[in-house]
Specification:
single chain; 387 residues; alpha/beta; TIM Barrel; eight-stranded parallel beta sheet; two-stranded antiparallel ribbon; 15 helices; 16 strands; 15% strand
């Protein structure tokens, strides 16, 4: 792909978000009843290609259990409110009731409470009572002090996640986490990320991880692109890391699963992320709008309460319906934000694909923005939210 000249001596690639592409239908269509949207990671086969974001506004032990029963994976953040407070309800109320101009300070105050590692096992046990598969997330910075607790909790799947995670972190001040050693020694499969480039994705795959999170900067509650200037539009990020997976597969014979994380709001976004090469998606703001979500109609990222450089905002997502309605329907509005996986199945049937692996091979096209594609009346009138 040719670079675009930004100025003398500086050029860059044109990158694309999911809203800038569309799937090209194949020469045949399929019966929606014949479509299979299940996927596998390590020894587990899941009905829905879904992980919930490890954000306090999205995933509680209760919602993790419910997501598991519905067919996905609920990922609990073990550095969040659920492991800082025996009863986190007052902390959630403090965040959701804070005036807009005090939200960041309130988040910083609430998250200043120390972690209680012993709560990790308790929260995992709560999830395991309701979900067939238990997953939790930890940052690379906290992993060394929490890994023993996580291993003792007998997780089924561990996520090591940060804004950007690399296999070659360098530091003069402290000994960095040896990600390859950790991944290979843990008794459970590990998903690592995020990343957004070919090289970074390839190096993460070489750690032995079962899956790689793809996405830096596109999330609804994150502000990394504005605060740090760092990020890659999601369609291009997934496609680039998909190319890295092909090389890794050729070199090792090992298939690493890609999970698109961020920039996904509708069922169509899920279909396009998979068409770009993802095996599954990690959802935040769409699930934060569920009636059962712990955020009370609000959503915030885990970098929002950073004590020195917060990189996230509390956004109001409202209440759209039950978690089951958001994931599996029925949808009551024509905006694509409910029955997300019913939409995925319909997209596959309409485009002629029966499995997710087939959809990954679909042709995609750079598409004009919705406003220039015959949808101006929808946008003007608010019908279908212009989507």
């Amino acid at each position: 792909m040719a670079d675009i000249e930004i100025g003398f001596g500086k050029s860059g690639r044109r990158a694309y978000g999911l809203d800038e592409i569309s799937i090209v239908p194949a020469r045949r269509t399929r019966d929606p009843d014949d479509v299979d949207i299940s996927w596998e990671i390590d020894a587990y086969r899941l009905p829905l290609p879904l992980l919930s974001s490890a954000m306090d506004s999205v995933t509680s032990p209760e919602t993790a259990g419910l997501i598991g029963r519905l067919g996905g994976i609920g990922v609990l953040n073990v550095e969040g409110l659920w492991t800082r407070y025996e009863d986190p309800a007052p902390a959630f109320e403090a965040i959701t009731n804070a005036p807009d101009d005090e939200v960041t300070a309130r988040l910083q105050e609430v998250y200043a409470a120390p972690l209680i590692p012993e709560l990790i096992g308790e929260r995992v046990r709560q999830i395991s009572q309701h979900a067939p598969l238990v997953s939790a997330a930890v940052t690379p910075q906290r992993a060394p002090q929490l890994l023993d607790h996580l291993a003792a909790a007998e997780l089924d799947l561990l996520v090591i996640q940060g804004t950007v995670v690399t296999a070659e972190h360098k530091s003069k001040a402290r000994k960095p986490l040896n990600l390859k050693k950790v991944v290979r020694e843990l008794p459970m499969p590990v998903v690592v990320g995020g990343c957004a480039s070919y090289e970074a994705g390839l190096h993460l795959m070489r750690t032995g991880a079962s899956g790689v999170l793809v996405g830096v900067g596109p999330g609804a509650a994150g502000t990394s692109r504005r605060v740090l200037g760092v990020g890659v539009p999601q369609a291009t990020a997934v496609a680039d890391v998909r190319a890295a997976r092909m090389r890794h597969l050729d070199e090792t014979g090992v298939y690493v699963h890609l999970i698109a994380d961020g920039g996904i709001a509708t069922g169509g976004d899920i279909a396009k992320a998979i068409a770009c090469g993802a095996d599954a998606v990690m959802l935040g703001s769409p699930l934060a709008a569920a009636e059962e979500a712990p955020g009370g109609g609000y959503h915030w990222g885990m970098a929002s309460p950073h004590e020195a450089l917060p990189r996230g905002a509390r956004v109001h997502v409202g209440r759209r319906g039950s978690l089951e309605e958001i994931l599996l329907g029925p949808a009551r509005e024509a905006d694509g934000r409910s029955n997300l996986f019913g939409a995925l199945a319909s997209a596959m049937a309409t485009s002629g694909y029966v499995t997710l692996k087939q959809l990954q091979k679909a042709d995609v096209m750079v598409a004009p923005l919705i406003g220039a594609a015959g949808k101006a009346l929808q946008i003007h009138q608010g019908a279908g939210k212009g989507l």
